[in-house]
Amino acid sequence: MYLRRHQWFMFITLIAGAPLLGLFALGFGSSDISIADLIHSVFEEQAASLNSTILHLRIPRVLGAFAVGGSLALAGALMQVLVRNPLADPYVLGVSGGASLATLISILAGVSGTLMHGAAFAGALTAMLLVFVIAHGPEAWSPVRLLLSGVMLATAWTAAISLTLTIAPEAQLRGMLFWLMGDLSYVESTRWLWIVLGLGASFALFFARELNLIGQGPLQAAALGVDIQRTQRVIYVGASLLAAASVTTAGALGFVGLAAPHIARLAFGADHRFMLIASVFVGGNLVVIADTLARTLIAPAQIPVGVITALIGIPIFLHLLRRGRV
Question: Exposed site from 89, 155, 272, 312, fewest CB < 10 Å?
Fold first, then answer.
């Protein structure tokens, strides 16, 4: 299965447009910066405040926004294949709940910075391992058992999060709510997130043939030589790690992992060799746009990025649903 000429044009435009969109996003915020000043700040010495704004605030935030969006979109695409459900997203198995609970507890304990991110990642991994163990149980692994285990565990995390918010001091409540709704304000370094995204995309592309066959049905895939159990485990671990890395960085951003794969599938077809890469760029560009709006709509105040992604993602998904594309 190959792309048609107009699909190739859209595919190249999507990829080439990402750096341009990032450059555009760097110029907007509580104080706008012209394209000329952006270019001069790279090649010449500008005012210290301008350099600090661009190098230490906006560049990490734009890079983090794209990496978070790309990771969520890729995880969502993999989850939809794993559980064979078009409504699956990266959070369906409770990874975000484990990360959120661990983060809220660390905030209550007065922990911040690297330790807080480490607690979030540990919580996400704990949730991933719990679902993995419960889904296996005494019976064989199955997507239905995995989905049910994840939903039940996610419900438990939600209850624990609600309890934590109930007993939290008012002084810490606003920061907790911002994190739960998705926030990129405290992004400093995204190197490790980009490493996770690069490795995740590489492994996903390596298994693209198996994903294409599983999408046609597990029985047909098994008849064509696909090791269903092994592939499902790889998909689960990869999607969970991608979701854990993104949630650790920016909290829970809704609808990116749900809507972006459907947009990519609609534009480029169901061939995972192209759809997975397209999902990364659709999700990354979507979060960059959402973060730019979050920083500028009511500047100097900011809106949680998760609110903007939901406001963008819900109409898109409802439109796809109405057209029968989901």
Answer: 155
Give the C-alpha separation, 311 to 228, whole Å.
Answer: 37
pLDDT in tens, 136-195: 766 666 777 888 888 888 889 889 999 988 888 887 787 788 778 888 877 777 888 899
pTM of the model: 0.86
CA atoms within 13 A on the CB side of 138: 0
CA-CA distances (angstroms) from residue 161 to 96, 165, 277? 11, 6, 34
Structure tokens at 183: 């926030």
CATH architecture of 49-322: Orthogonal Bundle (1.10)
**CA torsion angle for 234, 132, 160, 122 (degrees, to 10)?**
-60
For the chain, which residues make up each domain, given as ranges? Answer: 49-322
Q: How far is CA 77 from CA 37, 68, 73, 312, in A?
A: 38, 14, 6, 18
pLDDT tens readout for residues 237-289: 888 888 888 888 888 887 888 889 988 988 888 888 889 999 999 999 999 99
Tell me the backbone φ, ψ of residue 117, rounded to 5 degrees: -65, -40
d(CA 177, CA 186): 14
> 88 near 62, Cβ under 8 Å?
no
pLDDT digits (tens, 9 = 90+) for 275-284: 999 999 999 9
